[in-house]
Amino acid sequence: MAAAGLGFKFDPEWRITLFTLLLVPLMTGLGFWQLQRAGEKEALATAFELRQARPPAPLHQLWDKPGQEQAYLPVQLRGSFRDGEYFLLDNRTHNRRFGYQVLAIMTLAGDAGTVLVNRGWIAGDPARLTKPDVPAVNGPVAVTGHVYVAPGSPYLLQEQQLQPGWPKLIQAVEMDKLTPPLQALAGPKVFPYVVRIDADAPGALTVDWQVINVSPQKHQGYAVQWFSMAAVLGIFYFLRCSNIWQLFRGTGRQGQ
């Protein structure tokens, strides 16, 4: 009967209150951020599918367009790969194996300029004692692929320096640094973006291009986790700082 006289009491302890006020908004914000990322990834995947549905266009039609208008557009290239002259993009893994991506230099037919073509992945020596033996592509070829426009600047621990000679090892694709050696080789006209080769095109190596590295569903799952943790912490705080649990238990005993 004593429980019947109890009223609701709320007595917040300042340390728990501060902890909750800091973490609940943070976790809620992270949940909404994950939902935003999911929306961005869905939009990116949709844009990729729509652009990939277009027929390949000759590269000269895209040369002067803004980067975001070119991203993922299918293109067709005609020209010749320079033998033995290419960039090796370091620290690229495939099925947990160490390797490189091969950025070949293509001289376009009719003196139309030069373009970097990412031929895909090739296995490398994990000890880094030797460089991979990249198979050559002989003669004029017709290559299909899509324009790749990086979403932002690459993260590098230190400034990238190009070593003399070929092939050149690079940590990231920085066209402002790669363009001068390309111009020294083949003339001033260099396409400002890399073309990623199609898997069935001449010269393709191991090709497995990923448009998005984390699926929208994973971002949504992460959002649910953050919202759940915020809710659990809020419930714990309410139970810890009030007598609602004692009232509930008292009501339950009276109903028996």
Can you walk through the features of this model?
With 256 residues, this protein is an alpha/beta fold. It folds into two domains: 73 residues; 125 residues, no CATH class. 36% of the residues lie in helices and 23% in strands. The protein is built from five helices and seven strands. Strands 2-3-4-7-5 form a five-stranded mixed barrel. A hairpin with a 2-residue loop joins strand 2 and strand 3. Helix 1 packs antiparallel against helix 4. The protein is elongated and about 90 Å long.
Topology:
Elements: H1 14-52, E1 57-58, H2 67-70, E2 74-94, E3 97-108, E4 114-123, E5 141-148, E6 168-170, H3 175-186, E7 194-197, H4 216-240, H5 244-254
Parallel strand pairs: 1-2, 2-6, 4-7
Antiparallel strand pairs: 2-3, 2-5, 3-4, 5-7
* Count, helices: 5
CA-atom Rg in angstroms: 29 Å
Count of spatially separate domains = 2
Overall pLDDT metric: 85
Q: Order of strands side by side in the largest beta sheet?
A: 2-3-4-7-5
Quaternary structure: single chain
Helix content: 25-40%
Q: Structural class, from helix and strand content?
A: alpha/beta
Number of strands: 7
Calculate the terminal CA-CA distance, rounded to whole Å: 13 Å
Instruction: Name the beta content range.
Output: 15-25%
What's the shape?
A: elongated
Order of helices and strands: HEHEEEEEHEHH
The low-confidence runs, each spanning 5 or more residues with pLDDT under 50, are none
Tell me about the largest β-sheet.
5 strands, mixed, barrel
